[in-house]
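User: I'm curious whether this sequence folds into something compact or stays loose and floppy. Could you predict its structure so I can see for myself?
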Amino acid sequence: MRGKVVVITGAFGALGRAVTARALSEGARVVMIDHATHDAPAGDVLELGGVDLTDAAAAADAMQRAKEKFGGINALLNVAGGFVWSKVEGGDAAHWERMFALNLKTAMNASKAALPFLIESGGAIVNVGANGALKAGAGFGPYAASKEGVHKLTEAMADELKGRVRVNAVLPSTIDTPANRKDMPDADPKKWVTPDDLAKVMLFLASDDARAVTGALMPVTGLV
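Assistant: Here's the prediction. I'll summarize afterward.
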């Protein structure tokens, strides 16, 4: 990834920071986009906090600023997203809207905004889906449905952009983050996927080594 311009959404979360660190270690120039604000790590980094990627205009502005800073975009890694547990019976309909906004709409808006620059560079998009979306359990309806939307967005874009931009997705199981450890204190995190291991797979899919791969939904499930 040396010299490549990598845009990472949701860059200030646990996974986003791991992807940023791995990209920088491989010599990439990184654009960190997030709705939150935070101090960026040392390195060749453009920090864009306070960006609402559910707003198409805000997404377009962020990608334009990335292009102006580094001259182009080689890869977009769509990490931005969220999780809520909510049953249909007695659940809140707003949870469904929130999950589709955070998980699917952000990926679509960011991808569409970055496309002109990715087409120019012959670049790649890597989305974050979910292994848990393949068969949803009780309370996982809003999250799984929105992540399955990310899977189908990935497949549709890969076919639409074949030969111009590669589009793939990773489908992790539980990621070893502080939030997940807090929410599942009785689970064994040794069986979970570490953020750095997932970051390595994402950067492989974004790299020239994966130039023959597009439309893939790659499970990354650790030892589960």
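Summary: The first strand starts at residue 5 and ends at 9. Strands lie at 5-9, 29-33, 45-48, 75-78, 124-128, 166-172, 217-220.
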